[in-house]
Give the backbone structure.
Amino acid sequence: MSSETGKILTTDGIPLEESLKQAEKKNKIKAFLLVAPLLLFLIITYMIPIGDMFSRSIDDKMVTNMLPKTYKAMENWDGKELPSEEVFEAFYLDYKILVKNKTAGKLQTQLNYEKNGFKSVLKKLARKQKKFEEGNYKEQIMKVHKRWRNVEYWRAIKRRAPSYTYSKYLKGIDMYSNEDGKIVQVSEDRRIHRILWIRTVEVAFFVTLFCFLMAYPIAHLLATLPMKYSNLLMICVLLPFWTSLLVRTASWMILLQQQGIVNDFFVWTGLVADDNRPEMMYNKTGTYVAMTQILLPFMVLPLYSVMKTISPSLMRAGKSLGATPTVAFFKVYFPLTIPGIGAGCLLVFILAIGYYITPALVGGASGTLISNQIAYHMKSTLDWSFASAMGLMLLTGVLAIYWIYNKLVGVDNIKLG
Amino acid sequence: MALPKYTEPHYRIWHYFYLLICGCVFFFLIAPLFVIFPLSFNAEEFLVFSDGMKRLDPDAFSLRWYKDMIYGTKNPWGLAARNSFIIAIFATLGSIILGTLAALGLSSRHMPYKGLIMAILISPMIVPLIISGVAIFFFMAKVGLAATHLGIILAHIILGTPFVVITVTATLSGFDHSITRAASSLGSSPYNTFMKITLPLILPGVISGGLFAFVTSFDEVVVVLFLAGLDNTTIPIQMWTGLREQLSPTILAVATCLIILSVLILLTAELLRRRSERLRGINR
């Protein structure tokens, strides 16, 4: 024993408390090192790129970088009257370089977004500026087109001075900031995104509801049947679950086509006339039917795993205490399945809200969702900053749902099969 | 689920109605898969059952679409299948290695910030695929890995690891850590303990996570659509293009092969699940 009484030492002579702490620390580092490779990999290849999407979505350096001298000269301009000669000169010099590098087209397009009719004015200036003489640029520019005397056009240039903008987010909800800097809605006939958002939420909601209504009885049946039968029926749930999404979509395309089996069946039963076969694909019906079938296993599996744990004696106890089967079901059984319902609905809703493949194939024009719009801007218009902004808006929605779910039900370990 | 004798008539009716509903839902789930199978043997080019097929006339059936799948002109399927398998196998290996290590660390009770780290690790599963696709595309384009096999493999590792992390963590939750301590106290090195004690016990979890990762990679189309160039088409990409342009019976032949593959995977997963439950001492 050492002279310090009360402190227990290990065989190495270190106080036990310290030794334990060291061991604890070592274990902590060991555990962390095991996680580190994946964590680093995901942060670099996944988390940072998502952050990158944000900086892309607000990035507006293009115009700022194209007119550096102009914006420097404009710093002291109050925007009430026409800018001074100094600004005109700076603009002339900036624009001359752009014309020489053949990049003036980009500026024309960008400024035309800000103020309609700017493109033609700038194009004319591009042609005329070659003959400009040195000095008194204000007069010379104003002579090219009378719109240069209009202060509105200069204000439009000034509005693009900041290198960041939230206009892509406004565009995502069909709004824009107008010439006075006020945020207003776009004209009625151009409000396409809001319809898409509403439709996406609507489809996700109804698909979740249909999945729930269909999954509850079969999950109950699977959980209460004897093992040898339920295992067999479970295959009906698991086989679609493991089958390729595209295969299942393809089978729905065959079933729902106008000469398809579903329509044949309707004609055979006499529900519809042979020459009046309803269009079930390339619209919302197709999207609903296919998505419900594809996402159904994601509802059945969590429900099943919760229902499996509910002892059948609880229902019997309820009934023996005088409840009718209906009352026993709603007072005893149903409340116990709520965690399963929550998990299933969350899973299906989140999957449905970001759905892309099935709506693109069977949705047609009236069945496309917000994801299709994102993909369209990524691949066709190449407006990547807008695609990023829409993606992040969708992501925020998903995270909000997840957060609410966590508050209400609590995210337990997600079970797979 | 026989009803007791004393059941009242209206509950009896309700019960049969319930069974009927269940039957319909099961039919709705499974029937679409069986449409593909006979149509892929269609002798004609149309995607409807011909009169000959309805009469079960042998001449109405043929293997021509399977032949077309294998020997067809330009034959995109051979290359696509090879790419799909290469990508899926490497993505699965990567997911298994990274995911299992992380799960081992996460199940240690010494792990700091467990909740936060778990959230980051499984985030690729929660974030909608289209967003993952956009983000991963930006990254791969920046580092010059877009339209390469490596880029797609890395992307699929991102998407596959959450499944491995979840299944292995679940397996480890029933893991008796005193066994590894016993091994250490008997003089086994940590590496040996892992290989001889831990790994065999968590193997079912690892493999079933790996199966999830494999299927995810093998079926994945959203991210690949952004990343793939002409040399990296996979089966899903090829099917996607086919379905968008024209639904040909060749696609159904491929689809039939994929269904057979998924039956095999389902059987493996089911066997593993039972083995894992037996090993973990969960008896039903």
Summary: The domain at 84-279 of chain B is CATH 1.10.3720.10 (MetI-like fold). The mean pLDDT of chain B is 86. Chain B touches chain A through 90 residues (CB under 8 Å). Chain B has twelve helices and no strands.
